[in-house]
Amino acid sequence: MSDSPAIPHGAQVEADSAHHEHPSYQRHHFVTFEQQADTTNFAMWLFLLTEIMFFGGLFTAYLIMRNWYYPAFVAASHQLNIGWGTANTAVLITSSFTMAMGVWCAETRRKAGLVLCLGLTFILGLAFLGIKSIEYHEKWEKHHIPGLHYSIKSFVDPASDPEVYKSYPQDTGLQLDMANKTELYFFLYFAMTGMHALHMIIGIAILGFMIFRARAGAYTTGHVTFVENFGLYWHFVDIIWIFLFPLLYLISRHQ
Amino acid sequence: MNQISPVLWQFLVKWLTNFALFPPEASKIAPQMDALYFFMVLVSLVGLTIVVLLIVSFSLLYSKKRHPVAVQIEGSTLLEATWTIIPLGLFLVMFVWGALLYFRIYTPPANAMNIYIVGKQWMWKAEHPGGQHEINSLHVPTGQAVQLTLISQDVFHSFSIPAFRVKREAIPGRYTTVWFEATTPGTYHLFCTQYCGTNHSQMIGDIVVMTPDDFRIWLAGSTSGNSLAQDGERLFASLSCNACHNPRADSRGPNLANVYGSRLTLSTGQTITADDAYLRQSILNPSAHNIQGYAPIMPTYQGQISEEGVIALVEYLKNLNSDYRIQQTLNTTELPAANEGSAAPAGKSPAAQGEVKP
Amino acid sequence: MSAATIVVLPDQSTARIPKMNFITRENGLLSWLLTGDHKRIATLYLISITFFFFIGGALAGLIRLELLTPQTDLVAADTYNKLFTMHGVIMIFFFLVPSVPATLGNFLIPMMVGAKDLALPKVNLLSWYLYIIAGIMAIYTMAAGGVDTGWTFTTPLSTHYLNTHVISTGLAIFVAGFSSIFTGLNFIVTIHKMRCPGMTWFRLPLFVWSNYAASILMVLGTPVLAITLVLIVLERTVGIGVFDPAKGGDPLLFQHLFWFYSHPAVYIMILPGMGVISEVVSTFSRKRVFGYTAVAFSSVAIAVFGFFVWAHHMFIMGISNYAVLVFSLLTMLVAVPSAIKIFNWAFTLYKGSITFETPMLYAFGFMGLFTIGGMTGVFLGASGTDIHLTETYFIVAHFHFVMVGGMLMAFLAGIHFWWPKWTGRMYPEKISQLAAVVTFIGFNLTFFPQFILGTLGMPRRYAAYPPEFQILNVFSTAGATILGIGYLLPVLYLTWSLKYGAIAGNNPWQATGLEWQTQSPPLTENFLEIPIMDHEAYDYEWLERMQQKEVASVG
To answer: Helix C321-348 and helix C292-306: axis angle, to 10°?
Structure first.
């Protein structure tokens, strides 16, 4: 909250004389393009802050319930495949890299590079969703989707689930009431990863739009704010996953 | 006076004789609550008067006609400090006073007589330890601290006795408590004050305060025969709790004699006091409250016992003050042989095994 | 209240509404529905929220009619439950939360900071469309049979025990929440990044400060409501039990999540109104607001502290006594900045030159009624008395005093104050003063008896009550009728003024503030050139110098 105004005094004079020379992509209510870029960037950061508050409620519920029903949450967490989770993490981090490269390409006016980077990000995003759907399908087959014929068999009798039992041979069966709490874990799992996936889908859709516009040269003529701000969004979605992965997958590996 | 229409006159008379600004004070805490309330009303009146006086006097003194040119004043740190510190001071007084009152109302004394209240859509059930059951009413004696242990069978309700100035939410899944000591015999309103569905306005009743003698008479006349603890004993036996919770050396579960009020160590290392809430939780959600040194094999009774049943069991456990008492329970039932009563496989009710005597 | 007035109107025989203004700039429905102009969007909002206000008001009327008698005789109990639920939902989410920010805020903030529009005009339009979509969903809910959870959606009642339209209402509020978030986001960005040269933070009008504080609350608090509603909807559809104790969930978790937003929500609702009061009191005493810095910082303090007091709605719900201590203390702290503001406004009158036009009457009403409402909040924040008073009509009276006696009066003050700027025409003064007085009387008659009812123990949300409470309920309903008239009058005479009101000119109130230095109604781009701010806020001496210069150059 600095005390200086948004537009320095000198710029006012220049902007006046250059009134008819502002770039075509500068909106009329902004005095300089710099102001527009600065403003939209700030707006995106603020929006991401609201997203943190949005996910915060779910994280809170998860932490509280894990504290109350620790054995159930450990057992349920063992059901998640670390391999797929790690793969997804690698995919997302790489996609953040390609996105950052895309922003650089836009800033340095490399149209082909930009299209390539956006395309790679797009594909990696789809890959993430693909892996997620494999995982979700697995949950469906094992009847671990809350509300849809949920079964606690794997938790009451771990030996009946050989895949998971192999990785966690010291798991003992849970009592009935604790086993029922695993449904809560999966509810939070689906709510959190589902909300995350929804954000990914929206991001991928916007990426598709951006590839189309990038090919027409829209972002390589100096107007890079859209790409930059979308990059922020994409990195944010990545960061949410970087919190989800340890909290859901890794946290009970050695229990 | 006789020119006023008789209807209006009747109305006025009724109103003037029944008019009240606050409910009758029928408990020990009521005058204390009212004292703080009146202090707050006073402070509010003074505050409001000051604000209104400022507005009115400044409007008159400095209206455009009388004071055509305004004097630009930036502010006054002294005044800011004054009207920050004085209100803050008053509010802090109210905070402390209110907090004292709050703690007093929600910290029952040790000698309080306990009555269980179960709320459900749309009625209140009161269970006296002696086995008296009431619906939508509650009889209490004067001069005796009474603690209410509340729970709901379905949604949030709130047990409110305006004349006593007490109120407490009845929540599904956990006990809440409140206490009072009634001072004046009479009948007072009981309201449900948490919106609970269609007949929320119908979930009302009477609190009947009686002298201790009258109360004793009422107790004697209203009992069905069994006290709550006796009901609990029957349940304890019929659900075969004694298969694991008995004083034998090889028992699979901890001995429950004198468990109420004792300090226990959970398998997580945490120590807790075995109060009503803990006892209820360990019946319905035993795996989350496992005692150190015992395997987590106790099955859950969620869905098999009603809230009244849980209350009866808790009452029984409260009165279980010796091994002899448990032995008495054991004597009234046949215990299955030691190797038969093994932990039931998940999903099967333990009452399906072993024999149960009525 | 003599004829002394500060109004200076142009010569009515020659004055005309400026031909080119934001209303005449483009014609046609699409130019309004696809506009980016913050002033047009504000106008769209004004029409929409007025519509919803009257629906909410009609529901209130039905509630008060039912409560004339102790029995449930006008409507069935279920219907009554739907009436108060929908009244709450509509009034809070579709009227109070957007009221000042979306109408006056949208209209004025760019002009007040010296910008040509808000930072993100398309997001602004999106915000209005989200509001309309949410509104349609709410109307659908009502038409389809209504919802009867109470606006607080207490679980497990709302998730497992009712079969009314909880999901559609929850989703409607979810959408309306995003409308609110985007408005707040737009304001914060605009205020940070689009102030004109010379416009430092401490030269901003206090209206901007208040809206800024409210926007912080909107942006940080509303997402939590959004996720809570998502959880409710999921619990109802899938039935997992995150709020169901039988399945290991916790209904108190819902309470914490819900009130984490809904307490800041009340500050979202009141702060912009307080901003209006600052502007009005200053203008009609011809003086800078006393203690500008204190008022500015108080707004931010209310916003910050407002996030930390939510559990005072849960004092009787079995939370730990020590948690109650903490929240009660914080509640006392959050009450102090509001008191500071009231005194600062009162002292703005000191050595001023005061006139009593309608906006000032509403402002006085605000100051008195908000004081009562705020003080009764302290009754509730001191945990002990809350035990007796919570969930009774005392609470109902408390929040209506701050919301209706406070916020709604501030809203009306603002509408009347900026009406000439918005439409180019003056409203009729005498009838509007009458309406203000009628509203004040009606309000007190309606809600003051409810304090007594609450102390006597009458619970809220009751369709039937013990007969001894009837007389006070009758007073309350009588007051509600008067109040209804008081609210109907402005709709009538303001509409009348659109055609027949006196031409206002740029600055009928002789007010400072950048918005008054442009034409009425303003141009679409507000300013032909971005202004340069070279004086403090509420600088009446600057205004005088400017006017003398004009006279000298013209005369």
So the answer is: 160
b/e C245-263 (16+ beta carbons within 10 angstroms → b): bebbbbbbbbbbbbbbbbb
Other CB atoms within 10 A of residue C34 CB = 12
The nearest alpha carbon in chain A to B300 belongs to A177
Give which of A149, B48, B144 is closest to C367, Cα–Cα: B48
In angstroms, rounded to a whole number, what is the distance separating the alpha carbons of residues C269 and C93? Answer: 10
Q: What domains sit in chain B, N to C, each tagged with a CATH number?
A: 21-68+76-225 (2.60.40.420), 228-352 (1.10.760.10)
Q: Cβ–Cβ of B286/A70 closer than 8 Å?
A: no
The residues near C14 (Cβ < 8 Å, ≥ 6 apart) are: none
Cα–Cα distance between B107 and C358 in angstroms, integer?
52
Judge whether C465 lies within some domain.
Answer: yes
Q: Give the three-state DSSP class for B159.
A: strand
* Inter-chain CB proximity C201 and A43 less than 8 Å: no
- CA B86 to chain CA mean position, Å: 36
Q: Residue C363: in which H helix or E strand, if any?
A: helix C358-381
| Integer CA distances (angstroms), B43 to A30, B83, B134, in order | 52, 14, 42
B346 contacts chain A (CB < 8 A): yes
Buried b vs exposed e over B220-259: b needs ≥16 C-beta within 10 Å? Answer: eeeeeeebbbbbbbbbbbebbbbbbbbeeeeebbbebbeb
Chains adjacent to A (≥3 CB pairs closer than 8 angstroms): B, C
Total number of domains in chain C? 1
Predicted-complex ipTM score: 0.92
In a domain, C396, yes or no: yes
Tokens of B192: 């449900």
Residue C17 is assigned to a structural domain of this protein:
no
Structure tokens belonging to residue C404:
């209706």
Residue of C455, C454, C458, C477 whose CA lies nearest to C466 = C458
Structure token pair of residue B307:
């809230």
**Distance separating alpha carbons of residues C403 and C410, to the nearest angstrom:** 10
Size of interface A-C (CB pairs under 8 A): 142
CA distance C353 to C355: 7
Q: Which of residues 39-98 of C touch B (CB under 8 A)?
A: 72, 77-78, 81
Query: pLDDT tens across B105-164, in order?
Result: 999 998 899 999 999 999 999 999 888 999 999 999 999 999 999 999 999 999 999 999
Domain of residue C245, residue span: 29-554
Distance CA(A53)–CA(B343), nearest Å, equals 46
Q: Please state, as a whole number, how many other Cβ atoms lie within 10 Å of the Cβ of residue C458.
A: 26
- C115: domain CATH number is 1.20.210.10
Per-residue pLDDT in tens (0 to 9) along chain C, 555 residues: 446 888 999 988 888 899 999 999 989 999 999 999 999 999 999 999 999 999 999 999 999 999 999 999 999 999 999 999 999 999 999 999 999 999 999 999 999 999 999 999 999 999 999 999 999 999 999 999 999 999 999 989 999 888 899 999 999 999 999 999 999 999 999 999 999 999 999 999 999 999 999 999 999 999 999 999 999 999 998 887 889 887 888 899 999 999 999 999 999 999 999 999 999 999 999 999 999 999 999 999 999 999 999 999 999 998 999 999 999 999 999 999 999 999 999 999 999 999 999 999 999 999 999 999 999 999 999 999 999 999 999 999 999 999 999 999 999 999 999 999 999 999 999 999 999 999 999 999 999 999 999 999 999 999 999 998 999 999 999 999 999 999 999 999 999 999 999 999 999 999 999 999 999 899 999 998 899 999 999 999 999 888 888 777 764
Please judge whether B48 and C384 are an interchain contact, meaning their C-beta atoms are less than 8 angstroms apart.
no
Task: List, in order of start, the domains of chain A with CATH numbers.
Answer: 33-250 (1.20.120.80)
- The token duo for C483 is 């109040």
